[in-house]
Amino acid sequence: MHLDGFRGFRSIALIGASREERKIGHGMLRNIVESGFPGAVYPVNPKADRILGLACYPAIGDVPGEVDLAIIVLPAPLVVDALRACGEKGVRHAIVVSGGFRESGPEGAARERELLEVAHRHGIRFLGPNCVGLIDTELPVNATFVLGMPARGTIAVASQSGAICGAILDWANAQRIGFSRFVSLGNKADITESDLLEAWANDDATRVIGMYLEDVRDGPRFLRAAAATSRRRPVVVIKGGRTAAGRRAVLSHTGSLAGEDAAYDAAFRQAGVMRVDSIEDLFDVAAGFSEMPPLRGDRVAILTNAGGPGIMATDAVERGGLALAVLSPETTAALLEILPPAGSARNPVDLTGSSDAEIYARCLDLLLADDGVDACLVLFVPQVVVPAEEVAGQVAPAIHRHQKPVFTSLIGQATIGGGVKVLNDHGLRNFTFPERSVAALAGMRRYALWRARPAGEPPRFEFDEAAARETIAAARAAGRPLLDPTEVRRLLAACGFHQPGAALVTDAEAAVAAAERIGYPVAVKVASADVVHKSDVGGVRLGVTSAASVRDAVREVTAAALAAVPGARIDGALVQGQARPGTELLLGVSRDPVFGPLVGVGLGGIFTEALRDVAFRIAPLTRGEAEAMLDELRAAPVLAGMRGQPAVDRSALVDAVCRLARLAADHPEVREIDINPLRVYGPGEGALALDARVILGAPGPPEAP
Asked: How much is the pTM?
């Protein structure tokens, strides 16, 4: 449903308006009036005749004419009836500021459910409960109880936390950062972050969206909304609770590697959302998008009046995945004509401390005119030759003469205030330290690369769906959450995974016969649903080359399993053809309670736990997303081939990741999957699933299409 009624409203009723200055009902009314709201304002208070010069009404039903937006500031037990009265009045949009709902315990949660039922019955969309309100600088109106009306800008902000709302507004006012919209989400009983993303995707007043979130109400919907919105404008998010404890224990490697926060990280990456860790980081990145032209490449020029900050910026550029621009011979020659004798015309360009403000501007013009420069950092360290305000006064017009991003860093605090004000007056933000300006540029670059990648569709494979369903159904009917080795092989084969020849046997002689049929060497593995990590307990023997050693291996893996898990049910042994050497990877799935199937890929075998080099995404996956996962790995150079080692069959690896994602998306009853290792060979040679584990559970939330 569209939220246009929260943008163009012409009348507001404040239910719970108060005559007492220190009450929220008074502060909100004052903010509405003093912010210059051009429409009608109706205070609702049965005990007052006038508040702030406005006529009061005993109840919402007594207000003359239509009410576009109702704001409820009442004790929690009175809120449901107040919203019902709004519905009877014909109000279709509301803000419930009152607390005392889900956040306060079971009684409050029941009250919140009733509130939502009333809203649905009357067709009301509402913010909250337990929220601060909203600000619209275009209308304009400040319908919050937070002090100060922010300047008009192009950043739309939403916050789940009311306290963070107040902190953001106060900090932004001090920094002279402007907003288009500002919304407090509160408990998100009705309107959620996904609603706002869908509404703001087409908001002409907004260039960039910033959010503070503590959770997401509907993971698949958020993923769809965020990805669609990010195609139109950048989305920057602070996600609270990154290190929260309480992750449930899981059996598979993938689950233990994922951690509580991995699914959010995966969803943000997949949807093109830039994740940051602080309010300052959020506005550093948002300022880049709201103030600057798009970043077309990764080549950065640095202009500085001191060597140290230039070196720091250079290091930050490389850490941020950007490149130091190589200046053209023409640019270098022109710089040498301007710079003092001790200056450097190589990037970073060092003006030295003796340069004046005009030289800053002339050098900046030359750098921005160079076709080999995509963006520029301007650094200034205070010194006696020229004040910061003079440098800012020359640099700011130069920035606006070009269509490339330029970030300024007047470094310090006590003496740069005048320069910062000059930049702000020109609509530019100052970055206190070079690293922060580079972080903003790096965010712009990541977004540009994500946006340039085609959205694509998940590939469709020829699966044996009937075999997959029957295999899972048989295990569920038997009450077994862990598929046995034969079932695992059957399920993977149904999904198109290649596997070595194998046989499940129940005694040593059958194992010998299987080994001779498959061909030596073979691997022998204990078959037991009670032993999850077989190699960890000595339940695997590799390189078995004779009948005698097969018999020994069966006896040894069985004894090792029983020693590690006394009383374990032993189903026999799996005799498997031993594959030739290759690069070993882990493919896995764990079921996230918010987003659904979380797919991971990383180095496998013995490196899985040691290096913890795994990339995650939410299933299903496009081939482009699977490619991006491989590029994120620290082991990416290994996969590409290095130091004489061949590259892996990247196409086969991407295919395997997408197949696993499809399996997880199509079968929500599958809780966890580990394929470890997936042995990948050289280009055109494919991959083999050597060992795998599948754990069933109750069907999870639906996957994101």
From this structure: 0.91
